Amino acid sequence: MTIFGALGIAGTGVTVYRKWLDAVADNIANVNNASPTNGEAFRARYVRAQAVDYGTPAGAQVAGVELGSAEGRMVHEPDNPLADAGGYVRYPDIDLGSQMSQMIMAQRSYQANLSVASRAVDAYQAALQLGRNA
């Protein structure tokens, strides 16, 4: 593998983890969105990644985005303006603790891929300096 290969693979990782962070941020932002009981709850987004075979380009890619359940969870809030006759509203079925854990994992992985790219650039610059000093 060449230095440019390392940059390409790290770049695909950065893209996958950025999309994962975007999905987690969207889920966290909508965790408290109420909906009427006759409608759908916010559907959480889950990024599905897959490895790309070795070759050009190698690395990872987003294989798709899966949506969570539209059923959500029913909460009794009679004072909510969206409440039905029984006083219920629908909230997304999103576990905030799980989303925070996923955010930390995606953030650390994003940083690791950026670090790999940075090290590859440093190695390339050092190789250029060797050529100048010869």
Structural overview:
The chain is of the alpha+beta class and 134 residues long. The chain has two helices and four strands. A hairpin with a 6-residue loop joins strand 1 and strand 2 (59-67). The longest helix has 38 residues, at 96-133. The model has no long low-confidence stretch (mean pLDDT 90).
List the SSEs and their pairings.
Blueprint: H1 3-29, E1 45-52, E2 59-67, E3 73-76, E4 88-91, H2 96-133
Antiparallel strand pairs: 1-2, 3-4
Helix pairs in contact: 1-2
Question: What can be said about this structure in brief?
Answer:
With 134 residues, this protein is α+β, with helices and mostly antiparallel strands. It contains 2 helices and 4 strands, in the order αββββα. The chain has one domain.
